[in-house]
Amino acid sequence: MVSRRIVSTAVVLLLAAVAGCGSGEPAGRTDPDAPVDDSSAVSPVAPEGTGTVTVTVVDAAGEPVAGAMVVPEVVESSRPGFAFSEEGRFTDAAGVYTLAAVPPGEYTVSVVVDGEVVAGPEDVTVTADATEALALTASG
Question: What is the reported pTM?
Answer without folding.
Answer: 0.67
